[in-house]
Amino acid sequence: MKKSDISAFFAILQAANPHPRTELEYSSHFELLTAVLLSAQATDVGVNKATRKLFPVANTPRAILDLGQEGLEGYIQTIGLYRSKARHLLQTCRILLEQYGGEVPATREALEALPGVGRKTANVVLNVAFGQPTMAVDTHIFRVGNRTGLAPGATPLAVEQGLLKRIPKEYLQHAHHWLILLGRYVCQARKPRCWECSVAAYCDFKPKTEQT
DNA sequence: ATCCCGAGGG
DNA sequence: CCCTCTGGAT
Hints:
This protein has ten helices and no strands. Helix 3 crosses helix 4, helix 4 packs antiparallel against helix 5 and helix 8 packs across helix 10. The chain is 59% helix and 0% strand.
């Protein structure tokens, strides 16, 4: 994709959705961290369904710890990978209490040191909670970056670095959510809905058979 | 490279 | 049935 096309690409996404927001439901930094940790290889619809029951009962590190492994599993059993997520979240809560006074740390280094928090999750928290222009490359952004030609790459890190380099600064803050939403609702994994895509004119991917 | 691992869609 | 979903740890 040409450089001038990248500006046009994001101008269109911005015009359609000036203030994009995560679809995960949360009301504090800790709830956000918890929701993002639970969202690995899971839909945010499924995560919200679980956290709507969990957060009213426990939305602090102390309260989550008090649930224990079994208690916490009971709330998140409908989410994939729930045993590891329960274990990681409990360990993370312990660290938050012991090292950060129960608060969510605001640096990449501290976030990635938490069990269950890798580069992608840290990037989401840094972007959404702390307003940093990070690019969390999840399954959607990895696919969209490659398919569109926006930032082709063999690994999520390569795509992340390509996007950070190529996206104009004024769009970086919200680019994460625009690309997520594009991938989720239009540039879908199995059947991309190119016929109703607002940025198809600037995209390298051209489907062979047109559909309705 | 492999494991974890339920829900929803096609 | 198979694929996908805002991955991370071993």
